[in-house]
Design goal:
5-stranded mixed β-sheet, 5-stranded antiparallel β-sheet, about 425 residues, alpha+beta, 13 helices
Length: about 425
């Protein structure tokens, strides 16, 4: 029976203080409690009346049995759990003389019969059997009595370690602040960062207040906190890494073709031969439909894409691909599910067109590149009735589809080219 919030459980055998005297709980029956005073007088009171008394306290209650943390056992390695279970078998044999799972009628092994040997003698026999000291067996048994199997677990497997070790929390906070400040600064060395951290700590908490580790430990602390930041590497990579979303971001969805088309341009990691016979890098500008992941059109130009090239990309999106020599007849528009004959009345070019889908965009998503925010490109979109949506500055996740397409082109295509 509970004795109210914050009070122990009331059970038969407990001693309580009530009515200026000590009483023992003899029995519990429904809402009634039978008490026996220290002088031997019995009385029956309501539990609510007893617990509401001003001087009511439980003075002699036994501690509640602890519940074994079986859920924590599942988080341990299998070898650690098996070792704890093996120790449990030894503890049970010490207590009752037989290990768990023994068939009925099996006599205890020599040295473990509780009727013949005392508890200390049985623990000594177990220590001799396992090759450990009696003190070790006593310690294991004590932990098993209070914690069950969890008390037999190798506690080294349950310890957690901080990446920062024993460093002062104020020092860790200062290192993190200094690392954040390095994101948009020029790339420096660890020794420079250490000097800045020391100055920051002394300015914030006072000189000599925060204990400073040795230089070697300082280096380890900085390496642990700067993992993945590229603090001492490429500045471009460091800033791009810091620009990533802090958590899961909402991906872009589109229900039909043309609802949203993402456009971007990037230099290819390959050299090309120009018309003049010179070699140079090339810019690839593509438009990707979000709903179908179709590359609607692509323009390959020498480095330095112009606004007219972006406008040409829009034109290619709206015109069917013409049949080329050597193309199979199944690629013709006549083989498509689109109304070929009706389209042929509108545009004679359909007759020699391939079956590449013509996707007319409603919205195009661009970044802040000069090519896409130029008057030429904006006017072209306006004339075609296309809405232009600009991505947020330094937020490539706003047009993640086209960025992922560029990554696929570099990894699945460009790396296999001889250049």
């Amino acid at each position: 029976m509970t004795a109210g919030p914050g009070r122990p459980v009331l059970r038969p055998g407990d001693w309580v203080t009530f009515d200026d005297g000590d009483h023992q709980v003899v029995a519990l029956a429904g809402t009634s409690v039978r008490l026996r005073s220290a002088a031997g007088a019995d009385s029956v009171v309501l539990a609510s009346y007893l617990m509401a008394a001003p001087d009511f306290t439980v003075t002699g209650a036994e501690p509640l049995p602890a519940v074994e943390p079986t859920g924590l056992l599942a988080t341990l390695p299998e070898a650690v759990r098996e070792a704890a279970r093996e120790w449990e078998r030894h503890m049970v044999e010490i207590e009752i003389g037989l290990p768990p799972g023994t068939a009925p009628g099996t006599p205890p092994r020599p040295g473990y019969d509780p009727a013949v040997f005392s508890l200390m003698e049985r623990m000594a026999a177990k220590a001799s059997e396992l090759g450990v000291t009696v003190r070790t067996v006593q310690s294991r048994r004590s932990r098993y009595v209070w914690q069950g199997v969890w008390g037999l677990v190798d506690q080294r497997a349950t310890q957690t370690w901080e990446a920062t070790g024993r460093a002062d929390a104020r020092l860790v906070a200062a290192v993190q602040e200094a690392l954040e400040a390095e994101t948009h600064a020029s790339t420096g060395t660890r020794s420079r960062l250490i000097r800045r951290v020391v100055k920051l700590v002394e300015a914030t908490h006072g000189e000599g207040v925060v204990p400073l580790p040795s230089q070697r430990t300082f280096y380890k602390l900085i390496d642990a906190l700067s993992t993945g930041r590229h603090t001492f590497g490429s500045a471009v990579t460091r800033r791009q890494t810091a620009n990533r979303p802090k958590g899961p971001f909402t991906p872009t969805f589109a229900d039909r073709p043309g609802e949203q088309v993402q456009i971007d341009s990037t230099p290819l990691d390959v050299m090309v031969v120009l018309d003049l016979g010179l070699t140079a890098r090339a810019d690839l500008t593509i438009a990707v439909d979000v709903a179908t992941r179709t590359i609607c059109a692509a323009v390959l130009r020498p480095v330095g894409t112009k606004a007219v090239d972006a406008s040409l990309l829009l034109a290619r999106m709206l015109v069917p691909e013409s049949m080329r020599p050597g193309w199979h007849a199944s690629l013709r528009m006549a083989a498509s599910r689109m109304p070929h004959l009706r389209l042929l009345d509108v545009d004679a070019r359909i007759e020699q067109a391939a079956a590449k889908p013509v996707i007319v965009p409603d919205v195009v998503v661009i970044d802040g590149g000069k090519v896409f925010i130029s008057e030429t490109f904006v006017r072209a979109c306006d004339r075609l009735g296309i809405s232009v949506q600009r991505a947020r500055p330094r937020t490539p996740t706003d047009k993640a589809i086209v960025e992922a397409t560029f990554s696929a082109i570099n990894t699945l295509f460009v790396q296999h080219l001889p250049a």
